[in-house]
Amino acid sequence: MIYLLKFGASFVLPPGIFFVLLLLCAGWVWKRGEKRPAAAIAGVVFVFYLLSTSVVSDALVRGLESEYLPPENPSGDVIVMLGGGALLDTPDVDGQGTLCSSPANRLLSVARLYRKLHVPILLSGGQVYADTGAEAWIARRVLIGLGVSEDDILIEPESLNTTQNAKYSAKIINEKGFKQPILVTSAFHMPRAVLCFKKQGIEVTPYPTDYQANLTPREVHYSRLRPESGAISASAVALQERLRTLVTVLFE
What CATH code would you report for 78-209? Predict the structure, then answer.
């Protein structure tokens, strides 16, 4: 009964209510004799609906996240973490400005790897917009608060995208003479990140984290066919990554 109620409620709240309204519009257009426009509207609604289900969004994300798995016994001489968003003026335990959820998850893995390997950490990420946080500096502050020595933290605070992450980090890696960088970023982001570093002549050990979907597909329950805003967001992220990877291959 709980799942049934959630399923029904999803069609009277956004985004489900918009699918219902658009289908009603398609039916109205069909009754007016304009069958091709009605079919086009219905087709677009159906695709949009599928992208809003966790069944489809998980499959799209899983396709990216399964390309690399973290090594059981990672080894390297530097841990490189890529930024992924930060807030400028939000309060934190020891200062102002916080990382968004994905880079915060990345930072947690970095801290744990540091305790295991005791190698330097390179934080890559700048202030992308005027109202966003300086990612590398915020991450540095958090790591110091977690007990990481300042002497073991390097920062690259200028990059604004993944291509620049790789370009500016590669310069530091080469200057410092590091030979075995461990790359930490979100699992869905790892394929493009590895590609960007390869284009800079840097071979990395991928250590994906911040997984958004199970590696093994879940049982398809009807409740997973309800439209969800989170699923739309996940589908969009996966499709954007595919497109950005293609752009990186062709033009960068």
Answer: 3.40.50.620
Instruction: Please state, in angstroms and rounded to a whole number, the distance separating the CA atoms of residues 219 and 59.
Output: 12
**Would you list the domain boundaries of the chain?**
2-65+231-251, 78-209
Q: What is the pLDDT of residues 15-56, one digit of tens each?
A: 999 999 999 999 999 999 999 999 999 999 999 999 999 999
Phi, psi angles (nearest 5°) of residue 69: -120, 145
Please compute Rg for the chain using Cα positions.
Answer: 22
Q: CA-to-CA distance for 125 and 36, rounded, in angstroms?
A: 48
Is the four-CA dihedral 230, 128, 125, 153 of positive or negative sign?
negative
Compute the distance between CA of residue 205 and CA of residue 194 in angstroms, rounded to an integer.
9
Length of the chain equals 252
